[in-house]
Amino acid sequence: MGRTPIAYFAYNRPEHTLNSLESLAQNIGASDSELYIFCDAAKRPEHLDGVEIVHKIVRSRKWCKTVHIIENKKNMGCAQSVITGVTQISKEFGNVIVLEDDLILSPYFLEYMNDALRIYESDQQVIQISGHMFPIDFQAETDAIFLPFTTSWGWATWNRAWELFDPTMSGYGRIKANRNLRYKFNIDGSYPYFNILEAQVHNNIDSWAIRWYLSTFLANGLTLYPVKTLVENIGFDGSGTHCPNTSTSHPAVAERHLDRFPRNLRVDRKNLKNIVSYFNAAYKSPSTISSFLKKIYTQVCILCQKTIS
Question: What global pTM score does this model have?
Answer without folding.
Answer: 0.90
